[in-house]
């Protein structure tokens, strides 16, 4: 637990004051932290495999699985955000054409 706390403190130290132009760096740091959190959660879950109190074991497994799922979802969102930030107008493929004169699929974007 202490190691996880140190990791997040290090990430916050690296970020410093928020700067929109450094958003890509922040996402990178967040991805590292979330990946580490998943590793810690899985390690903690592994430790509960040897506990003889099955009720406590099952409760902790349930909590840790939920936590790992949420962390994994956060990582997936960050990964998708990073791809979006790397996108340029030349790499986007339009799948809808909006033209007021009716030459496209739609006349408005509402």
Automatic annotation (TrEMBL):
Pfam families: PMEI
InterPro entries listed in its UniProt record: Invertase/methylesterase_inhib, Pectinesterase_inhib_dom
Boundaries of every Pectinesterase inhibitor domain copy: 1-77
Source taxon at top rank: Eukaryota
Name the record gives this protein: Pectinesterase inhibitor domain-containing protein
Species in which this protein is naturally found: Xanthoceras sorbifolium
